[in-house]
Design a protein that fits this description.
Order of helices and strands: HHHH
Strand content: under 5%
Low-confidence stretches: none
Largest sheet: none
Number of strands: 0
Radius of gyration: 15 Å
Number of helices: 4
Shape: elongated
Length: about 130
């Protein structure tokens, strides 16, 4: 069993959010194109009702602002696709031309630019302030 501190858990979540943004940016060229999984995983790692959880020293204010922007773009895409039939990896052609999809990719790329200033954090040791 892993006895990670609450801060180390946050650092791991931060790394998963970075990976999610990378996946989103690279999605169309990825070997693993499960749009449903992409959509579901965002909610695994981000909780807009608990933004104070994403606090320093793990998240800078600019990183937090980037994630809020990703969430707004994600919500916009979700509103557009949520009532469509089950999305499978064989039928993604309608997603790529959507403005909301293109916006999400651009915003994820900008978030990655911000996160890459510090890179991924340790998944085992707490960073210092």
């Amino acid at each position: 069993m892993d006895n990670a501190s609450p801060q180390v858990v946050k650092q791991r979540i931060r790394n998963r959010l970075i990976e999610w943004c990378e996946w989103c940016v690279e999605f169309e060229s990825s070997d693993y194109q499960d749009f449903g999984e992409l959509i579901e995983q965002w909610n695994d790692w981000w909780d807009e009702d608990d933004v104070p959880y994403y606090d320093p020293p793990v998240f800078t204010q600019k990183e937090q602002d980037s994630l809020k922007a990703v969430n707004r773009a994600y919500d916009s895409l979700w509103v557009e696709v949520q009532h469509r039939p089950m999305i499978t990896s064989q039928d993604l052609s309608f997603i790529y031309p959507l403005k909301q999809w293109k916006d999400l990719k651009v915003i994820c790329h900008a978030a990655l630019d911000e996160f890459n200033l510090r890179g991924k954090l340790s998944e085992d040791v707490e960073i210092k302030d």
